[in-house]
């Protein structure tokens, strides 16, 4: 039984369909007398004005999303619609097909719509039949309908596009080959470039990459003097993991067109390692310094290698070239935050907000991130009112998840301002409004209490959370840390071991337990085993490397301790890592460098508990 609301929507859909097809077959002035009217053919917009299906399929490497979403293809040609009178029988078939689709009878809907398309010779009805077939995930039926569509509208670029797409999906690659061979032979040099890129993109959707490469190789054979032919071959070879052939082809492309950005980017992609890729792109930029895409790729590779200063230089070159380059401004802002350079970060991010294109819809998500980052920077510097002002500029109506994040950040800031009760009320209200977010909000409330040094209250909140969500490893983890802060080491160990039982790959549980033992100078061999396990799970985690250095320090191996702590600090200039490294250096007699690290932390965070307790224990006065 259909509810009233659903019934109303269904009737509205049928009504829209009826009016739409009356217009298709009779024109707006004839709708009331459609039974017998003969309408002369008239030129119409070539894009079929038909309803879209609600469902679509996404396939990687084998199928594509066709017809179920609005096409972005620009149609320059016009279709001529047929001369046809709308009879009661035709109207009945159209409506029955639509109703059948509404009820899930897709096979009947498809067959009926296809029959009507054949009878009326209307390309838009053929397109509609193809939509129904795609919705039913029937590629062969969709291909049949698209063939009819293309036959009825041979000048339609959209129909042509979909015909090629479905030929690939149905693995009819010989037809694709014949089509492109014919088009390339008749095309101008400029058009051939576009055709090679089109063929390359189509073949990317094939299941058998070797077959796809063979097709590309045969089609490209007569065009050895065209760099795009070699580049398309290189990409096809890369898709079938033939890196050697890909490298050969892209080198040929670069000989023919040395300034090709696409070719050099592909060359970097097929290089043997990241260092070689960096060298390839750097050499290209020496010759062609204005190449924006190549410079962006180089900067990203440098970031991946943690060469932050080199990456910064590339982004600054981009910004000097275009002072309103949003990508460069955003990247430089993030890099500055990474280096704790908040002054520079604010400068870049505020410049981002001041650009003319920052407020456009397509940049909405990045704009939200920029506002969050500016709020975070202000918060880090205890400018809490300013932090709240940045958050107030985020529109909470656009995205529920964003709205939740904004309210959580507000709660955290109010707590830091000293208004813990208001902060907790925000969290409580959010939990009531968002029951599926209770676990996340519970962790947030505990973190707020911990930050204002209400450790016992945080422990009690987490204890309640463990009772409600006993399998939630994140709650168990925070519960363990809260227990440790209260000296409840038995609860801490029990909770961390419980996490390891639930998730043997939860590296932070091994690390936390190992570090706690090392910090208390207990069971150091066991501590080392636990931290070593964590390192194997996350070899580049600076906090775990810090723990490894600390356990070496406790075991008396000062050289290994220093080596690991320096490595950890290089990965992340964190205050706690700096304090550990400073203590090791102090113990080794390197007092000057140790004092330098202690002073840096004191300047950034004068109230740091670990710093002050370490200075007291070592009897150091800064």
UniProtKB/TrEMBL annotation:
Give UniProt keywords alphabetically: Signal, TPR repeat
An example of a Pfam family matching this protein is TPR_19
Signal peptide range: 1-31
Q: Which PROSITE patterns match?
A: TPR
Region Disordered: start and end of each range? 31-64
Skewed-composition ranges (Basic and acidic residues): 39-62
Q: Does the keyword Signal apply?
A: yes
Which SUPFAM superfamilies would you find in this protein's record? Answer: TPR-like
Q: Where are the TPR repeats?
A: 227-260, 575-608
InterPro entries with a match to the protein in the record: TPR-like_helical_dom_sf (IPR011990), TPR_rpt (IPR019734)
* Residue ranges the record marks as coiled coil: none
What this protein is called in its record is Tetratricopeptide repeat protein
Q: What is the lineage of its organism?
A: Bacteria, Pseudomonadati, Pseudomonadota, Betaproteobacteria, Burkholderiales
């Amino acid at each position: 039984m259909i509810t009233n609301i659903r019934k109303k929507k269904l009737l509205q859909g049928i009504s829209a369909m009826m009016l739409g097809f009356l217009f298709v077959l009779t024109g707006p002035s004839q709708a009331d007398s459609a039974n017998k009217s003969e309408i002369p053919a008239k030129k119409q917009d070539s894009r079929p004005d038909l309803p879209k299906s609600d469902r679509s399929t996404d396939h990687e490497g084998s199928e594509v999303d066709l017809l179920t979403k609005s096409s972005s293809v620009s149609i320059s040609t016009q279709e001529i619609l047929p001369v046809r009178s709308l009879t009661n029988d035709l109207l009945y078939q159209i409506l029955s097909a639509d109703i059948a689709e509404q009820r899930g009878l897709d096979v009947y809907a498809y067959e009926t719509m296809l029959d009507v398309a054949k009878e009326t010779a209307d390309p838009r009805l053929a397109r509609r039949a193809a939509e129904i077939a795609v919705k039913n995930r029937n590629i062969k039926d969709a291909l049949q309908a698209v063939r009819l569509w293309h036959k009825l509208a041979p000048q339609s670029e959209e129909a042509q596009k979909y015909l090629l797409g479905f030929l690939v999906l149905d693995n009819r690659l010989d037809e694709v080959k014949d089509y492109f061979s014919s088009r390339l032979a008749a095309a101008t040099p400029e058009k051939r470039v576009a055709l090679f890129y089109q063929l390359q993109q189509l073949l990317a959707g094939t299941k058998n990459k070797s077959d796809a490469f063979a097709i590309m190789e045969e089609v490209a054979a007569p065009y050895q003097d065209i760099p795009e032919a070699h580049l398309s071959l290189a990409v096809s070879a890369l898709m079938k993991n033939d890196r050697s052939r890909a490298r050969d082809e892209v080198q040929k492309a670069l000989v023919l067109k040395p300034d090709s950005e696409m070719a050099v980017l592909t060359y970097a992609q097929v290089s043997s390692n990241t260092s070689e890729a960096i060298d390839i792109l750097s050499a290209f930029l020496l010759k062609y310094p204005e190449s924006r895409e190549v410079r962006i790729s180089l900067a990203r590779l440098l970031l991946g290698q943690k060469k932050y200063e080199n990456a910064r230089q590339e982004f600054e070159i981009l910004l000097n070239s275009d002072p309103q380059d949003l990508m460069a401004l955003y990247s430089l802002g993030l890099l500055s935050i990474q280096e704790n350079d908040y002054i520079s970060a604010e400068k870049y991010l505020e410049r981002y907000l001041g650009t003319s294109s920052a407020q456009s819809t397509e940049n909405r998500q990045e704009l939200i991130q920029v506002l969050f980052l500016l709020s975070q920077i202000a918060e880090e510097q205890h400018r809490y009112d300013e932090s709240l002002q940045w958050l107030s500029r985020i529109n909470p109506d656009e995205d529920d998840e964003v709205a939740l994040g904004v309210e959580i950040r507000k709660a955290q800031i109010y707590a830091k301002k000293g208004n813990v009760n208001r902060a907790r009320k925000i969290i409580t209200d959010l939990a009531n409004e968002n029951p599926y977010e209770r676990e996340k909000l519970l962790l947030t409330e505990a973190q707020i209490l911990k930050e204002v040094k209400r450790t016992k209250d945080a422990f009690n909140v987490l204890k309640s959370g463990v009772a409600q969500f006993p399998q939630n490893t994140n709650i168990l983890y925070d519960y363990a840390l809260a227990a440790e802060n209260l000296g409840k080491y038995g609860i801490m160990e029990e909770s961390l071991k419980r996490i390891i039982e639930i998730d043997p790959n939860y590296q932070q549980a091994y690390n936390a337990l190992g570090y706690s033992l090392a910090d208390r100078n207990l069971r150091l061999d066991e501590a080392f085993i636990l931290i070593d396990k964590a390192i194997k799970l996350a070899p580049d985690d600076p906090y775990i490397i810090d723990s490894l250095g600390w356990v070496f320090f406790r075991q008396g191996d000062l050289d290994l301790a220093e080596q690991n702590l320096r490595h950890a600090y290089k990965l992340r200039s964190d205050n706690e890592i700096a304090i550990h490294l400073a203590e090791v250096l102090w113990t080794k007699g390197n007092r000057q460098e140790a004092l330098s690290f202690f002073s840096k932390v004191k300047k950034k965070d004068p109230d740091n508990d670990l710093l002050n307790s370490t200075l007291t224990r070592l009897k150091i006065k800064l």
